[in-house]
TrEMBL record:
Biased composition (Polar residues): 728-744
Keyword Mitochondrion: no
Listed name of the protein: DNA 3'-5' helicase
Catalytic activity: Couples ATP hydrolysis with the unwinding of duplex DNA by translocating in the 3'-5' direction; ATP + H2O = ADP + phosphate + H(+)
Residue span of region Disordered: 686-747
Residue numbers binding ATP: 31-38
Lineage of producing organism: Bacteria, Bacillati, Actinomycetota, Actinomycetes, Micrococcales
Record bears the keyword Isomerase: yes
Domain UvrD-like helicase ATP-binding positions: 10-316
Length: 764
């Protein structure tokens, strides 16, 4: 009450207020979904800055996605009435990249280092597996990469693996070799993989106490959202950043430490740490997230204060009761007492379709209904467990001309043509990286085949050159014929000009010494013009290639936008932004569109209306989790995350038959449905009401909308189900359409999507 006049505390309940104003060395906020954890974190930061307890530059706030970081930064700006300059609000990965770029010379990298995404890592592993003949031992790029990733998340490198492995097992020995080669290759390529970003930052701090001291001094307040999903490497990073500075290093700091900064021991005391989390929402065990980080917080951070939040401000009572009931079936948890003042609200709606298309049709119709009732499309989200479920949903949304976006699907930066163009920029920043160099050689095709590439690579290695330098000396590589030599030299020349632009452009400023880098957009424009990538795609007159050309134009627009937003920041800053966005989430603006995403992506978000689709055994819980220890509990937490995203309306949908990999099989309702008290759900069509024949047949014949399009007449797998049922249909009818059919169906589908987009744009 004493703070009633403080606008930053207004409307907060007593526990929330405590979480904002409390000032100890460590604070743990544990609470269920929707209880205001993220909100409290945001207010706490604003409170620190506004009260002049900290400069914005002394704050490091960690969020789970870039999108969440952007939102938090904006919220803090709103609360303070102006952007807080110099504040780090970012993901673990972004924060680490910033640190590594600044300190790269410490470990013999150049600051233009490449960040390998998972596809790049797998490309590298593919070569290594081939060289070591590891495929015959069952290694694939995918399984090797996930094994390496798990180890790196535990901060274990190849030599650490060697000490723990079974020496008698040839597979282990081989894996150790693959791992060693992989890390060696990364280093030679001046590249980090995604897990290295965090692991290497921890190593950097441990190996260089003077560097650690700089950041320990700088960040006085460290705040971490979604702490339950941190893995060991991330936890270690927090530990390093929250140590008091080393006494020896304290004396050497520049600028020198002021007396006011030092404690009684003559060192800069540990930064204050605030973490918020909900162990019921831990859903990343498969990526090494360790729930113990939150459970053992008090032991790790002595003197930690714990604040519990129990009031949920997001959802209606019905939704909350369903969430509480489901998660109550996990026995390994601390009981929570989450309540809401917002009344029962609408019942949860259940629907069982006879197929995934029938399910999708229901979702689309219901969204239209909600929309007619005045709900904006942007307030609606559709969740699913696996990405493969999107196709049926997208088809029906397109048919109904409902605007939507898929979050975290095939991401913009993962598209082949975008990666091709990006390879040029990446290679300019890091001409030692073989993966990107190899990619650009063949994009577009210019007759430089694998043999020529190998000869150049051998020459490069023998003379200790960058790949660009090696190409410029193609005349010295006798194996290259005159024609090949010509195209290599032309490419080298183009890259040299682009590099020149990117680093200095040859222009000098008024003082005459500082070279001015050209805007990133100009560099990219040069590349696109000289390679004629866009023209070549356009010339094919294929709608899919048109879409690819558009993507390249979009990339150019992204670069230009970056130049405007960050004048003079340059190529490396651009690549950093892109690589991080690409790897974690996308920038898509979802205002005005329905959002489609996996439940993993949904974490931390909220929507007025939520559809959870495919609530079936084998999907949710996922088949893969069933045999794994703790697997079902993790799936249940995922279900809990999904349910608690909904504010007012929640739909749980499933299908009684589902096609996977071309087979149609009967689907069972998820066990999680049975865990929800019956009275909370109004079944529009319950699992018991659906058989593969009978009542649902008429539905198939009277498809309410969109029957006019050519694609609706495509022989559908589902109609065969409706008429015959999976056991009676001829097997031919049940198979996936042949590839050709599939292709043309897909094309038509894309065409419709384009038309729908146009209709939308013209307000139709
Ligand atoms: P999650 O566990 O899903 O991440 P959370 O605990 O971080 O949830 P928030 O997202 O911070 O919860 O808050 C949930 C919703 O409740 C938000 O819309 C937020 O603005 C609102 N909210 C939180 N606290 C209050 C409050 N004291 N008064 C009004 N609204 C509140
Ligand atoms: Mg949150």
């Amino acid at each position: 009450a004493a703070n009633a006049a403080d606008p930053l505390l207004e409307g907060l309940n007593p526990s929330q207020e405590r979480a904002v104003v409390s000032r100890g060395p460590a604070l743990l906020i544990v609470a269920g979904a929707g209880s205001g954890k993220t909100r409290v974190l945001t207010h706490r930061i604003a409170h620190l800055i506004r009260g002049r307890e900290a400069w914005p530059s002394q704050i490091l706030a960690i969020t789970f996605t870039n999108k969440a970081a952007a939102e938090m930064r904006e919220r803090i700006g709103d609360l303070l009435g102006g952007a807080a300059e110099g504040m780090w609000v970012s993901t673990f990965h972004s924060a680490c990249v910033r640190i590594l770029r600044r300190e790269s010379e410490r470990f013999g990298y150049v600051s233009g280092f490449t960040i390998y995404d998972s596809a790049d890592s797998r490309a590298l592993l593919k070569r290594i597996i081939k060289d070591t003949d590891a495929a015959s031992y069952g290694f694939t790029p995918a399984n090797a990469s996930s094994k390496i990733s798990k180890l790196k998340n535990e901060l274990l490198d190849a030599s650490a693996f060697r000490t723990t492995m079974n020496d008698a097992d040839p597979r282990d020995r081989l894996f150790a070799e693959i791992f060693t080669m992989y890390d060696q290759e990364l280093r030679r390529a001046n590249a980090f993989d995604f897990d290295d970003l965090i692991g290497q930052t921890v190593q950097l701090f441990r190996a260089h106490p003077d560097v650690a001291a700089v950041y320990q001094r700088r960040f006085r307040h460290i705040l971490v959202d979604e702490y339950q999903d941190t893995n060991h490497a991330q936890y270690s990073l927090i530990r390093e950043l929250t140590r008091p500075t080393d006494p020896e290093q304290t004396m050497r700091l520049t600028p020198p430490a002021r007396a006011a900064e030092l404690d009684d021991n003559g060192v800069i005391p540990a930064a204050s740490l605030t973490v918020v989390g909900d162990s019921d929402q831990s859903i990343y065990a498969f990526r090494g997230a360790d729930i113990r980080n939150i459970v053992e917080f008090e032991r790790d951070f002595v003197g930690a204060e714990v604040v519990k939040l129990e009031q949920n401000y997001r959802s209606t009572q019905n939704i909350l009761s369903a969430a509480n009931a489901v998660i109550g079936n996990n026995f390994d948890r601390q009981e929570k007492n989450l309540w809401t003042a917002s009344g029962d609200g609408e019942k949860i709606v259940g629907f069982t379709g006879y197929s995934q298309h029938d399910e999708a049709r229901f979702v689309a119709e219901e969204i239209e209904d909600l929309h007619r009732q005045g709900l904006a499309y942007g307030d609606v989200a559709v969740f699913y467990r696996t990405n493969s479920q999107t196709r049926a949903l997208e088809e029906l949304l397109i048919r109904s001309a409902i605007p939507y976006r898929v979050l975290g699907g095939t991401k913009f930066y993962e598209r082949a043509e975008v990666k091709d163009a990006m390879a040029y920029l990446t290679s300019i920043a890091n001409p030692y990286d073989p993966i990107t160099w190899s990619r650009l050689l063949g994009a577009p095709k210019r007759g430089i085949g694998p043999m020529a590439e190998a000869h150049l690579a051998i020459f490069q290695e023998a003379h200790d050159l960058s790949f660009h330098e090696a190409m410029a000396r193609a005349a010295e590589v006798p194996q290259l014929g005159p024609k090949l030599r010509g195209s290599v030299l032309a490419l080298a020349d183009m890259l040299a000009r682009a590099t020149q632009m990117a680093v200095g452009g040859g222009t000098t400023d008024v003082e005459g010494d500082e070279a001015q880098p050209a805007p990133v957009g100009d560099v990219l424009k040069l590349i696109l013009d000289e390679t004629e990538m866009i023209e070549k795609l356009r010339a094919k007159r294929d709608p899919q290639d048109d879409a690819r050309a558009e993507n390249l134009e979009e990339l150019l627009a992204v670069a230009r936008e970056f130049d405007v937003k960050h004048p003079g920041a340059g190529l490396i800053a651009f690549l950093t932004e892109v690589s991080l966005v690409a790897a974690v989430d996308d920038l898509d603006d979802t205002s005005g569109t329905v959002s489609l995403m996996t439940m993993h992506t949904a974490k931390g978000l909220e929507f007025k209306a939520v559809f959870i689709t495919g609530v079936e055994e084998g999907l949710l819980p996922h088949q893969m989790s069933v045999d794994e220890t703790g697997g079902i509990n993790e799936e249940r937490r995922l279900m809990y995350v999904g349910i608690t995203r909904a504010r007012e309306r929640l739909y749980l949908t499933l299908a009684s038959t589902r096609a996977t990999f071309g087979d149609i099989s009967a689907a069972m309702p998820s066990r999680f449905l049975q865990e929800i008290p019956e009275g909370l759900v109004h079944w529009r069509q319950s699992p018991g009401e659906v058989t593969s024949r009978g009542g649902t047949q008429s539905r198939a014949l009277n498809a309410p909308r969109g029957t006019g399009g050519g694609y609706a007449q495509r022989p559908s797998r589902d109609s065969s189900v409706a008429f015959g049922g999976p056991s009676q249909g001829s097997s031919a009818a049940l198979q996936e359409p042949s590839n050709g059919n599939m292709q043309s169906a897909l094309e038509k589908w894309r065409e419709r999507k384009r038309l729908a987009k146009e209709a939308q744009a013209s307000g139709g």
